[in-house]
Design brief:
about 15% helix; DUF4503; DNA repair-scaffolding protein-like; mainly beta; five-stranded mixed beta barrel; DNA_repair-scaffolding; globular; about 375 residues; 4 domains; single chain; OB fold (Dihydrolipoamide Acetyltransferase, E2P); 7 helices
Length: about 375
């Protein structure tokens, strides 16, 4: 029988790490145990995906003899398990016990190996470099995090097997993220390397649930990836929530999205006011005084791409690309649609947030900076 143990009164990350090292893989004595819930596959599919990855056990749980069963003799995996609760200090590893023969440590795979697995659903553990982050809103109002990751196996040239250059990893709101990982993701200029243990690959996508462990890895020169990051080219088969590169010619401008606004040249805040009886502007956020604020702009354009015939491509541009585009048109103030049309932009790194194939192919892109 399998069970999931909720260990209470573990408050700090150091306590979590310490308890994991003491308990993982060892036979433990559980005292003052409380049954919290009976779980079934329908109620908790991520947990049962982990159970399936451990089934059948390599040895008999009672005798520890090897289980030499033919495929026809194997007992099907359990259809239910119990969620148990125990207080800290009431789950004690038995003294003198070495690693249990039932324990299966995670086996690290490359992302290429994981993508080549033809199983519709499987557990996986891997190391990967995070190159981009997106926050998505779910139907329940919670925020899911989408991490785009890669590793040396996907960045090698040439890409002869058609695998993607980057993979999207979805972190559910229930996934526990350590503060060290959060800090590394907030400073993505460093492109941190993370270890993902017990993630779930389902229908060519990777998900992290509450059973997944994510850790920040130290720098390792043997795990380096080339710079700049190699991305897939935008094509007719590109999927939603992908990273790719695009080059195209501007054929239209969505003028309803085109606007500009002044910001502080120091902190980029919009809270500016003119100074009374003096020239210049005052930032109400940081107190900086400036002669002229920095102008921020937003612009969305439609592209014609040679690799995409009969396809509508709309892209939201970043500030530096807008500035470069307008400078190339010799516009001294604002912009002229006629001058922007026909300009070639790219290659740009983009996040594909919408793909609609109901009638003709329509793609919504947003430029991103991968540093």
């Amino acid at each position: 029988m399998f069970g999931e143990v909720l260990l209470h009164c573990v408050s700090t990350e150091s306590e979590i790490q310490q308890n994991s090292e003491q308990l993982e893989g060892h036979v433990c004595l559980l005292q003052a145990l409380r049954v919290v819930q009976r779980l079934t596959r329908d109620k908790c599919s991520p947990l049962f995906s982990m159970i399936d990855s451990l089934w059948p056990p390599p040895v008999d749980p009672k005798s520890h003899d090897d289980l030499l069963q033919s495929p026809s003799d194997r007992v099907p995996p359990p259809c239910f398990c119990y969620r148990l609760s125990v207080q800290l200090g009431h789950m004690v590893p038995l003294s003198g016990q070495t690693e249990s023969p039932l324990y299966r440590p995670p086996v690290l795979q490359t992302l290429r190996e994981i993508l080549q697995d033809e199983s519709s659903r499987c557990h996986c553990s891997f190391r990967a470099t995070v190159v981009h982050k997106e926050l998505l809103s779910s139907n329940a109002g919670e925020r899911e995090m989408l991490l785009f990751v890669t590793d040396p196996s996907l960045q090698r040239e040439p890409n002869t097997d058609g695998n993607r250059r980057t993979v999207a990893v979805c972190l559910s709101p229930s996934c526990l993220i350590q503060s060290s990982v959060t800090q590394a993701l907030d400073a993505l200029q460093t492109q941190p390397v993370l270890m993902f243990r017990d993630a779930v690959k389902e229908n060519a996508q990777i998900f992290c649930w509450e059973q997944t462990v994510i850790q920040l890895e130290p720098e390792d020169s043997s795990f380096s990836i080339p710079r700049p990051i190699i991305l897939d080219h935008l094509g007719p088969e590109t999927l939603t929530y992908s990273l790719c590169t695009v080059t195209g010619v501007v054929v239209a401008v969505d003028e309803s999205t085109a606007f500009s606004w002044p910001t502080c040249s120091s902190c980029e805040s919009c809270r500016l006011e003119t100074r009374e009886h003096q020239k210049g502007f005052l930032c109400l956020e940081c107190g900086a005084v400036m002669d002229e604020p920095t102008t921020k702009m937003e612009l969305e354009v439609f592209l014609s791409c040679s690799s995409l015939s009969h396809c509508t491509v709309k892209i939201k541009l970043q500030q530096k690309t807008i500035t470069s585009l307008l400078n190339s048109t010799s516009c001294t103030e604002g912009y002229s649609v006629e001058n922007v049309l026909g300009s070639e932009i790219g290659p740009l790194s983009v996040f594909v947030h919408v793909v609609n194939r109901s009638h003709t192919v329509w793609m919504g892109l947003e430029e991103c900076d991968l540093h």
